[in-house]
């Protein structure tokens, strides 16, 4: 062996065995592959169908656009026509109120009051006259004064009324037309104006009757309201008011109910703030504002059942109206005689109740006790029927023609059933003894 020759080394042979790699089990699951291929194919076909259909409907919608625009315009026209239709009432009560207002409004008038009033001007004067200078300074004091500088016609008030005869007779409140030397103009619902004059005023009730002057009539007959029967009123019954609210808003309408019947109130208003006691009036929560005075209180049949006359100060929804039955006799008298007259006994009295019975030591708890007023008003009117018949202060009138006098049936209400000149029989309690006397009723008018 050569010195530089390396010895032969036999390396051991390494046995390499073949390794078997196992195949995943899910690849062998035919059902799983079928499911995956189904999803893939569904997605593919869905995508292709969507592309094709979108293009088809796009072009189809373009062709339909003119027709859709026409149909849209047609539907808008229908909506516009529907909004222009007349309002349809939602309830039978609402329908009745609308009908009453339409029927009655032409007969309701606004009354405007004008009068010549003085024009005042202010000027200044020195009350001390010419005073010498004090310490070299002028002494000048000027005090404002007022003086009249002519007159001017001015609107001083307003109210409401309603026509009760085709020739222009108007019923209203007495306090509306109480201003002397004033001119009255009535405005109808259609805007026409007519001068009017006062024919008569009621000496007992807050009622008056005007008449449109004949020379101014251009369209007759005038529309007339229907008068109802106020004796049939029920508490809770629906009522409607129409009036010249605040003297500015003509034919203002409000609705409410009858809140009470047979009320007695003391009302003030009109020229000189006239004060009077009104018996047996209607209470309502329908709005009666200033300027509504003299307007009609109507039922759902369109009939006048009251004349609006007063409202309670410092309260809400408390108004009062005079029953129309009390106005019917006024209308009939003015038509027949040209004036309003009442039967007149001539006594001042208070109605007896348990409290009065105890305070006055009476033996009865009903009747009319004749008394003088707190301000010295006489108990028996001089020259009256009562004085002629011998009635005295502190007498208690128990009955008139057999009709008992009570808080629910006052002496004034009973007397209203008679006429001036009628002879009636009174049953009295005088010093705890009952007496019967005859009286011929007198006449009271304004």
How is this fold's topology laid out?
Elements: H1 30-83, H2 92-104, E1 108-125, E2 143-163, E3 169-172, E4 183-187, E5 193-201, E6 208-212, E7 226-227, E8 238-245, E9 249-269, E10 274-284, E11 296-298, E12 303-311, E13 319-323, H3 324-337, E14 341-344, E15 349-351, H4 354-360, E16 368-370, H5 385-389, E17 396-400, E18 403-404, H6 411-415, E19 423-430, E20 433-440, E21 442-445
Parallel strand pairs: 7-12
Antiparallel strand pairs: 1-2, 1-4, 2-3, 3-6, 4-5, 5-6, 8-9, 8-11, 9-10, 10-13, 11-12, 12-13, 14-21, 15-16, 16-17, 17-18, 17-19, 19-20
Which short descriptors sum up this protein?
Thrombin, subunit H, Pdz3 Domain, 446 residues, 6-stranded antiparallel β-barrel, 3 domains, alpha+beta, 21 strands, disordered N terminus
Give a description of the structure.
It is a single chain. The chain is of the alpha+beta class and 446 residues long. The chain folds into three domains: 108-216, Trypsin-like serine proteases (Thrombin, subunit H, Beta Barrel); 227-340, Trypsin-like serine proteases (Thrombin, subunit H, Beta Barrel); 343-445, Roll (Pdz3 Domain). It has six helices and 21 strands. The strands form four sheets. The chain has a six-stranded antiparallel barrel. A six-stranded antiparallel barrel has the order 8-9-10-13-12-11. Strands 15, 16, 17, 18, 19 and 20 form a six-stranded antiparallel sheet that branches. Strand 5 (193-201) and strand 6 (208-212) form a beta hairpin. The longest helix has 54 residues, at 30-83. The chain is extended and about 130 Å long. The model is unreliable at 1-21 and 64-75 (pLDDT under 50).
């Amino acid at each position: 062996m050569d010195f530089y020759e390396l010895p032969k080394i036999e390396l051991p042979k390494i046995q390499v065995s073949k390794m078997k790699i196992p195949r995943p089990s899910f690849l062998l699951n035919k059902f799983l592959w079928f499911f995956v291929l189904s999803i893939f194919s569904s997605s593919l076909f869905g995508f292709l169908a969507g592309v094709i259909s979108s293009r088809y409907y796009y072009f189809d919608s373009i062709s339909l656009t003119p027709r859709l625009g026409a149909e849209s315009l047609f539907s808008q026209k229908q909506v516009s026509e529907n909004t222009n239709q007349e309002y349809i009432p939602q309830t039978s009560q609402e329908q009745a109120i609308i009908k009453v207002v339409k029927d009655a409004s032409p007969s309701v008038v606004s009354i405007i009051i004008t009068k010549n009033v003085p024009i005042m001007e202010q000027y200044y004067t020195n009350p001390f006259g010419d005073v010498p200078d004090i310490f070299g300074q002028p002494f000048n004091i000027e005090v404002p004064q007022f003086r009249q500088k002519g007159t001017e016609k001015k609107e001083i008030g307003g109210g409401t009324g309603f026509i009760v005869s085709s020739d222009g007779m108007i019923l209203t409140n007495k306090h509306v037309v109480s201003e002397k030397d004033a001119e009255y103009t009535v405005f109808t619902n259609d805007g026409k104006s007519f001068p009017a004059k006062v024919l008569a005023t009621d000496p007992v009730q807050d009622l008056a009757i005007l008449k449109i002057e004949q020379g101014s009539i251009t369209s007759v007959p005038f529309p007339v309201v229907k008068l109802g029967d106020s004796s049939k009123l029920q508490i809770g019954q629906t009522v409607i008011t129409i009036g010249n609210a605040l003297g500015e808003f003509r034919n203002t309408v409000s609705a409410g109910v009858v809140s009470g019947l047979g009320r007695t109130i003391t009302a003030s208003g009109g020229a000189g703030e006239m004060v009077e006691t009104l018996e047996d009036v209607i209470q309502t929560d329908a709005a009666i504002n200033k300027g509504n005075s003299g307007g009609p209180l109507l039922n759902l049949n369109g009939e006048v059942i009251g004349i609006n006359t007063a409202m309670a100060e410092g309260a809400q929804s408390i108004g009062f109206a005079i029953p129309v039955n009390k106005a019917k006799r006024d209308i009939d008298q003015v038509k027949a005689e040209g004036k309003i007259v009442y039967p007149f006994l001539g006594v001042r009295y208070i109605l007896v109740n348990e409290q009065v019975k105890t305070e006055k030591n009476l033996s009865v708890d009903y009747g009319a006790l004749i008394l003088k007023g707190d301000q010295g008003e006489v108990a028996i009117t001089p020259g009256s029927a009562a004085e002629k018949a011998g009635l005295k202060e502190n007498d208690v009138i128990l009955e008139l023609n057999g009709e008992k006098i009570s808080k629910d049936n006052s002496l004034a209400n009973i007397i209203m059933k008679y006429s001036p000149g009628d002879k009636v029989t009174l049953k009295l309690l005088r010093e705890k003894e009952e007496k019967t006397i005859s009286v011929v009723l007198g006449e009271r008018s304004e």
